[in-house]
């Protein structure tokens, strides 16, 4: 069975085979992926996968309403939590992003309504033959990142947003040689 070359560690293989690129139409899962992608900025994805359960505990099960209510004392406690990335700006961004996420939900009915509109409701189907062809960002991810920023989100630039689009299945960036590509393609 062939899979995308980046999935080497058992945690990466599990994530690749079961989550990466699967269209996410659940707001709480969208929020989880946004939080994890934001935390990952500048780090390896494996670093975040190894801490994912710690993040789940530290950030109230990725419930946006709970994270939006985090007060400064909770931020200080998170700064002492060795199970997550202890970067104050990333932690504060997670709280601000939760608040912005709730505003998007209120305005659009759901975060999924908002984000899926950027791809007309269907995943973009790419047909990359090598990982060298996969872009780090696209004009679409730049547009989405700019819109998110205008709505109060931070730590979500074009590259991080593209990683989110890949993770949440807004784009199918599995290589054509990967067993997941046809499963996640239209008609596949």
Automatic annotation (TrEMBL):
Its EC number is 3.2.2.20. Keywords: DNA damage, DNA repair, Hydrolase, Metal-binding, Zinc. It catalyses: Hydrolysis of alkylated DNA, releasing 3-methyladenine. The keyword Glycoprotein does not apply. Pfam families: Adenine_glyco. GO terms for molecular function: DNA-3-methyladenine glycosylase activity; metal ion binding. The keyword DNA repair applies. Zn(2+) binds at residues 4, 16, 174, 178. GO terms for biological process: base-excision repair. Hydrolysis of the deoxyribose N-glycosidic bond to excise 3-methyladenine from the damaged DNA polymer formed by alkylation lesions. This is DNA-3-methyladenine glycosylase I. It comes from Pseudodesulfovibrio senegalensis. The lineage of its organism: Bacteria, Pseudomonadati, Thermodesulfobacteriota, Desulfovibrionia, Desulfovibrionales.
């Amino acid at each position: 069975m062939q899979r995308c070359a980046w999935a080497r560690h058992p945690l990466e293989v599990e994530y690749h085979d079961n989550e990466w690129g699967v269209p996410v139409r659940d707001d709480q899962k969208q929020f989880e992926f946004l939080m994890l992608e934001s935390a990952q900025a500048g780090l390896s994805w494996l670093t975040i996968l190894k801490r994912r359960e710690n993040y789940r505990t530290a950030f109230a099960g990725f419930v946006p309403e709970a994270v939006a209510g985090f007060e400064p004392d909770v931020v200080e406690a998170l700064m002492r939590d060795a199970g997550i990335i202890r970067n104050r700006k990333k932690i504060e961004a997670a709280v601000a992003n939760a608040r912005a996420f709730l505003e998007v939900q209120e305005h659009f009915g759901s975060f999924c309504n908002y984000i899926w509109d950027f791809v007309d409701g269907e995943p973009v189907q790419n047909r990359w033959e090598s990982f060298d062809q996969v872009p780090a960002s696209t004009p679409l991810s730049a547009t989405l990142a700019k819109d998110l920023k205008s709505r109060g989100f931070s730590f979500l630039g074009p590259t991080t947003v593209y990683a989110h689009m890949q993770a949440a299945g807004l784009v199918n960036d599995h290589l054509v040689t990967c067993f997941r590509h046809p499963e996640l393609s239209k008609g596949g």
